[in-house]
Amino acid sequence: MHLRDLTQFLKELADNNNRPWFIMNKPRYDILREEFLQVVTEMIAGVGKFDPAVKFSNPKKAMFRINRDVRFAHDKSPYKTRFSAAVAPNDMRRPSQTGGPTYYMQIDGQGRLLFGAGEYMPPAGRLKALRQHMVDDAAGFKKVLKNKKLRLTFGDIRDEGKLMRPPKGFDADHEHIEYIKLKSFFVWTEIDVPMNQPELLVPLIVNGLKDAFPLVQWMREAKEETEAE
Fold first, then answer.
1. Whole-prediction pTM
2. Quick one: how far is CA 173 from the chain centroid?
3. What's the pLDDT band for 218 if we cut at 50, 70, 90?
4. 3 state DSSP class of 47
């Protein structure tokens, strides 16, 4: 992938976020999009080696569109200023709607690479299941939190959107209550894009995501209650 061309395009897009500019520069975008597709394809192949559940994910479905959904947004800029992709079993690109852990990566115009894994703002049923899983498998969750590779690469689970008080039905004195208060369960890190060594991009992402696999495995064990239950 021509990383300098990609970041330069995204930087210019941030400064000219309008349809006329984008149409004029669409040939550049089309080339970069095809190159990014190859990156995502290689990423899926790499992740599939340690997580067979995503081995046959469709890279085209994993990639996010450049167009923003501005229907309810205050910012009406029509385009995203990043290239991004999310990989999950059965091509569930939007885990916030379907539930289940996902691997995510993005590159922006500032030359930053962000990647991580988990569930961002899962739906209510899935959120409850994850919280209950922390109670039912407290020891297993503690083991994940102490995983050396996970903590070295990502640190702790991000506390964005954390509740001030424990959710209804959960013991305020539970050992994992600070995590039970979370509304998202995601780990991520951000590093510089390897501009001068583009061949390192995919290995960096794959090796990093491998460190998040223990969390992904644990989250997959959380089961939602059915109506019959």
1. 0.91
2. 31
3. very high
4. helix
